[in-house]
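Worked Example 4.2. Consider the chain below.
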Amino acid sequence: MKIPHPIPYQGSKRHIAKYILPFFPHDINTLIEPFAGSAAVSIAAACYGKASRFHLNDINRPLMTLWQEIINDPQGIAERVF
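Applying the procedure from the previous section yields the following structure tokens:
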């Protein structure tokens, strides 16, 4: 399955996420991604139903602000960008 990603990000785990997911336990409630970047692991985990809740974290504050906008107001950010 090709999974769309809203943020092209250098160093993204997008291409290796499918290799990371098999190491996850089967009973994850909340997935915490400490170095989220493009949130590739969380996005892949959501697509494959590996967790029901997600917590993204990264030291890059503008990036985390962008993720908050994408998650909390996707229509608003789409209207501003496009």
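The two ends are 26 Å apart (CA to CA). Residues 28-81 form one domain. Compare this with Example 4.1 before moving on.
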